Amino acid sequence: MSEAAVVPDGTSPEHTPSETPCEQAQFAARSERAHAEYAQPEARSEQAPPEPESEQAQPDSRFDPAGTYPGSDPAQTGSQSDPAWSDPRSAPAQTEPSRPRRHRRRGRKAVIAVGVIAAVGGAAAAGLGLAGRDGSGGGSATQLPPATADVTRQTLKDSQSEDGELGYGTATSASGRIPGTVTELPDAGEEITRGKTLYEVDDKPVTLMYGATPAYRDLKPGVEGADVEALERNLDALGYSGFTVDDEYTDATADAVEEWQEDRGLDETGAVELGRVVFAPAAVRVDAVEAEEGAATGPGQKVLSYTGTTQVVTLELDTADQRLAKKGTKVAVELPDGTSVEGRIKDVSTEIDPGDGGEQDPTTKVKVTVALDGAKAQKAAASYVLAAVNVFFTAGERKNVLTVPIAALVALPEGGFGVEVVRGSTTAYVPVETGLFANGRVEITGEGITEGTRVGMPA
Predict the structure, then answer these.
(1) Closest among 263, 260, 244, 262 to 252, alpha carbons compared
(2) Rounded to a whole number, what is the largest CA-CA distance in the chain?
(3) What percent of the chain is helix, strand and coil (3-state, nearest 5)?
(4) What is the rounded CA–CA span in Å between residue 434 and residue 321?
(5) Hey, which residues does 455 pair with through a beta bridge?
(6) Alpha-carbon distance 321 to 1, whole Å?
(7) Is the pTM of this model over 0.70?
(8) pLDDT tens per residue, the chain (459 residues)?
């Protein structure tokens, strides 16, 4: 049976003290000390105040073998081992109750208080225990913590390392739109820039141009839209002029297109048929060729796939770590040779893996693409393709803050957290505000908390 279930002298468990939790714990501590005091008769007799002297208590030659004196009160003159000394019932009715009677009453309260503390679990119980040492936050403890740690000032980072793969990122498919026969294809790994041929159909080029909007219609006079503006920007970058770069396809635009068509060996119609240009965000690297020269192609037929020309790192995160992946955030990438280069989160997307339809449940993954910043980083990664790398994320950073090990935090009875400040042979519990948690430490601020302050720790 646990102490919480012990109810002496017929007291009901519901009859608990009405004190506050701090008072209960303080009272329990005092009661336990009292219990220890009265459990040692020799110590009690030494510490108890002397009884008033009287003629009856003075020893003389009339001492008899029973240990009494003629005319004396046995309850006052007997030894502590005499039953009459320890049994209050043998004393005269008019005398006050002896110390053992008070001890039993106080002991009952102590057991009940301990029962209250034992019945409260988790952090609340820990808080009550702390109040037992120093409920006010300013007194001294009777027992020092089993271990201590110093408050340190440092830069705290919420960082995490994840495995990634170095490569060129997600590949995009280029599908045919013009019916005909594939007559020329690039090689895998070849890089193609603005205005160059991506592949040929019936000996006529399909040209790469830069733009975020995919080509989806014929472009001709009278058409307006973002795809028109993208075409005009490319013509302007390639050196054609005589038109205004905007979203309107005018006759001036058609004139520039005719010049471009002549240079490319195309029919000079002044209109761009669907499938004659492919828009990509920037220069591309051919990832894989999916058609063969001489094969028929047409709408929806895959010809090749391409990626960007700069190396990137791709990785997956659990949804619980999504806080780490914010577009534009800087990261550190460790290459296979141990070199560290800077990176930046370029893209974040969420994908659902449906599982196998059996025991495996669907899972959600966060896919992250990290771009390597600068020519130096690209050069360092140039010799590694499809290599495993480590990516170091920093979700939060606090500079020059006071920190303690997370284990130093204690739950206070009134709520919130505190630390047990150790000064010499005494301790005091000080409420603190917590900040960033990282790497097993936590940022704290509190009254009197400074660098070098010693705080209690569990064993």
Answers:
(1) 244
(2) 146
(3) 25, 35, 40
(4) 21
(5) 149, 421
(6) 45
(7) no
(8) 333 333 334 333 333 333 444 444 443 443 343 334 333 433 333 344 444 444 443 444 333 434 433 344 433 433 333 433 334 333 434 434 444 333 333 333 333 233 322 332 333 334 434 443 444 444 444 589 999 999 999 999 888 899 999 999 889 999 999 999 999 999 999 999 999 999 999 999 999 999 999 999 999 999 999 999 999 999 999 999 999 999 999 999 999 999 999 999 999 999 999 999 999 999 999 999 999 999 999 999 999 999 999 999 999 998 888 888 889 999 999 999 999 999 999 999 988 877 766 677 788 889 999 999 889 999 999 889 889 999 999 888 899 999 999 999 999 998 999 999 999 999 999 999 999 998 899 999 999 999 999 999 998
What phi and psi values does residue 113 have, to the nearest 5 degrees? Answer: -60, -45
| CA separation for the pair 264, 256 (Å, rounded) | 13
Residues present in the chain in total:
459
* DSSP secondary structure letter of residue 8: G
* Token output for 385: 């393709």
Task: Please enumerate in sequence order all residues whose Cβ is within 8 A of that of 16, keeping only pairs 6 or more positions apart, or say none.
Answer: 112, 113, 115, 116
Phi, psi of 341 (to 5 degrees): -125, 160
Confirm if 119 and 113 have CB atoms less than 8 A apart: no
Between CA 411 and CA 125 the distance in angstroms is 9
Q: Looking at this protein, which amino acid is placed at residue 456?
A: G
